Amino acid sequence: MLESEVMHRLNNKNENNVIAISSTIFTLTIIAVALSMVTTPVAAATTTSNTTATTSSSSTSTTTPSSPSGIELSPNPIQQERIRTTSQTPINQTHLSITYSGNGTFTLPNTSETINITTNGSGIVSIMDQSVYGKETIRAEDGQTATATYYEIVQLNPATGEGKGITMALLHTNSTGTIAPLNGTIAAGIDDIQPNGEEVLTIWEWQSGIGSNAGVAPSP
Question: Model's pTM, two decimal places?
């Protein structure tokens, strides 16, 4: 009687093990199928996004998308100025605020008309990133003003104090006079940093082909 009971329990245990193993295999199969359904469309999308294939009865050709064109700037600078920092105030161990002033010339986009300007600006300098973000007021001789919001990244030579910066700026003005075409202009340029602390800034208009930066003469 005891032997029969033991055999009966062993048989039940084996059946339970078989059921558990079968259930595990079934679960793993479902997971594998699900993974294959997820990864297959992604791989296909990656393949088709890089090339465009054209198939005919006689031949198959593949066209590779052309690379983007380079950055287009105005043929001549629209702003040239010499600036000098007038104050520096530490904010913390990694940032400081600055003010500066300068003077130079502005050549209106799509014209040869040059006007004298003075500038006053301020910015927040990141010592770790060697970058500065700020705003500058541009004032023409007749009193018209424009505001430039800019961001600049700098590389410095610690041994000489010289450096260069690459600058991007967005210009705004409410003027309806001579400098009105500046409104909405996006500009890019180079900042030459001199050992004596002066900076020579040269700015070109970015001719994106869109809106104010179309790079074409305005309609009469």
Answer: 0.65
